[in-house]
From TrEMBL:
High-level lineage: Eukaryota, Viridiplantae, Streptophyta, Embryophyta, Tracheophyta
Family: Belongs to the metallophosphoesterase superfamily. Purple acid phosphatase family.
Annotated protein name in UniProt: Purple acid phosphatase
PANTHER family the record matches: ACID PHOSPHATASE RELATED, OS12G0637200 PROTEIN
Recorded catalytic activity of this chain's protein: a phosphate monoester + H2O = an alcohol + phosphate
Residue span, Calcineurin-like phosphoesterase domain: 168-364
């Protein structure tokens, strides 16, 4: 008799627990983490690079005209812009005139010139000039080629670091110079962002005999139509290494480093391949998959310090770009990113990184917020688990290049994988405010631009417990 109240209490507890579990499961069922493998199948044969005489590679008219014009941030926040171009017939000068109106270029900056050889290739004169003293969020016009053929371009500097300004970020990777590459760039240009975060593998010149560096020049002329007008943030990929001991070329990143400088010193980095920039509400950390990253290496130590410098009140959004993905459910390059994941994932989770962008795999994939940081060799906890503290991982190596698509998925689709498809395309991240960012991946759908995967991301610092996997909206055919 005396045990009745205890039994009743136990019954109440059981009922409460069961009800709570039921409610929780209903909540989960209403917002399941969907894992979608797109059923869209594009013909996926590899395309050849566009021919050397393709119109997109045309040399601009005029004697010794500046060509391959491209810009990237010249300091950490965009009050400087680094302008690069090539002259072929003669060195010419490295002066850039700039100002707030095309007919009033009242500022001047003096640059430098470099050249390099690669086996039997000698580059043109590569000019680099940093325009300083710029105001944020301001349109500037700039011109170079004085004494020969003057060409004029323009760009808009990013908004100042701060949580209020919106920012539209293009996401392109593994672009190459095939007709597919051309479609991707054309689709991006239809509604371009403020800047492009490029996740590596630019020209694929190394796929040609002797790493034909003329293909670096054609890629520079092809991409100029976008990258002369807005900064592209460069990440080094494996096709930038250009290590070719068989022809005596043993200096890694030789063409890339001569042509595409980065503002690494502004973020206290010691090498051009890992650095950070801050644009409006975003703090973007670029890492190098092909530089030493083990504990105590310069890159590892820099990242450790850099994460301490991040101020989420000023720059609420924190992103990492690295060429090799840490999460990839494609047989192409499967597990290649595992050493970097093991080294950096705990740091990324602890720092509440919002998104980690990667390329390398020629397909598209977006993850749920998952982590795999429990495993300690002996505990057996080696399966990624849902983790709201963790970044979303996006593989955007689908720009379209001479190697073709990565068309072998692993099965079953892992629970962390939210959406995957092997088509070409690009993505855009629209940061609306300090809590919400809209994201869309656009497939190259046989000549058309089709929205294929969209979602909202909520900020890991300002909405740390919000489960943003509920927003996923994929349109696949
Ligand atoms: Fe790659």
């Amino acid at each position: 008799m005396e045990r009745k109240p205890a039994a009743a209490a136990a019954l109440v507890v059981v009922v409460v627990v069961v009800l709570a579990a039921a409610l929780f499961s209903v909540g989960e069922a209403a917002h399941p983490r969907r894992c979608v493998t797109s059923t869209y199948r594009r013909k996926h044969q590899a395309s050849d690079d566009m021919p050397m005489d393709a119109d997109v590679f045309a040399v601009p008219p005029g004697r010794n005209a500046p060509q391959q014009v491209h810009i990237t941030l010249g300091d950490q926040t965009g009050t400087a812009m680094l302008v690069s171009w090539v002259t072929v017939e003669a060195e010419g000068n490295s002066t850039v005139l700039y100002g707030r109106a095309a007919d009033r270029l009242d500022l001047a900056a003096e640059g430098t010139t470099t050249r390099y050889t690669f086996y039997n290739y000698t580059s043109g004169f590569i000019h680099h000039c940093t325009l300083t003293g710029l105001d944020h969020g301001t349109r500037y016009y700039y011109a170079m080629g004085f004494g020969d053929t003057v060409r004029t371009f323009w760009f808009t500097t990013p908004p100042p670091p701060g949580p209020g300004a919106p920012l539209r970020l293009g996401l392109i990777g593994d672009l190459g110079q095939t007709p597919d590459s051309n479609s991707t760039l054309t689709h991006y240009e239809q509604h371009p962002g403020d800047a492009v975060l490029f996740v590596g593998d630019l020209s694929y010149a190394d796929k040609h005999p002797l790493h034909d560096n003329n293909r670096w020049d054609t890629w520079g002329r092809f991409s100029e139509r976008s990258v002369a007008y807005q900064p592209w943030i460069w990440t080094a990929g494996n096709h930038e290494i250009d290590y070719a001991p068989e022809i005596g070329e043993t200096v890694a990143f030789k063409p890339f480093s001569h042509r595409y400088p980065t503002p690494y010193r502004a973020s206290d980095s010691s090498e051009p391949y890992w650095y950070s920039v801050k644009m409006g509400p975003a703090h973007i950390i670029v890492l190098s998959s092909y530089s030493a990253f083990g504990k105590y290496t310069p890159q590892w130590k820099w990242l450790e310090q850099e994460l301490k410098r991040v101020d989420r009140e000023t720059t609420p959004w924190l992103f990492i770009s690295a060429h090799v993905p840490w999460y990839n459910s494609n047989n192409f390059h499967f597990m290649e990113g595992e050493p970097t994941r093991v080294q950096f994932e705990q740091m990324a989770v602890d720092a509440r990184v919002d998104i980690v962008f990667a390329g390398h795999v020629h397909a598209y994939e977006r993850s749920h917020r998952y982590s795999n940081i429990k495993y300690n060799i002996t505990d057996g906890k080696c399966t990624p688990v849902a983790d709201r503290r963790a970044p979303v991982y996006i593989v955007i190596g689908d720009g379209g290049n001479i190697e073709g698509l990565a068309d072998e998925l692993t099965w079953p689709q892992p629970a962390y994988s939210a959406f995957r498809e092997y088509s070409y395309g690009h993505a855009v991240l629209d940061i609306k405010n300090h809590t919400h960012a809209h994201y869309a991946w656009y497939r190259n759908h046989d000549g058309n631009k089709v929205t294929a995967d969209t979602t909202w991301f909520t900020n890991r610092y300002h909405m740390p417990n919000h489960d943003d996997s509920v927003y996923s909206n994929t349109a696949y055919v």
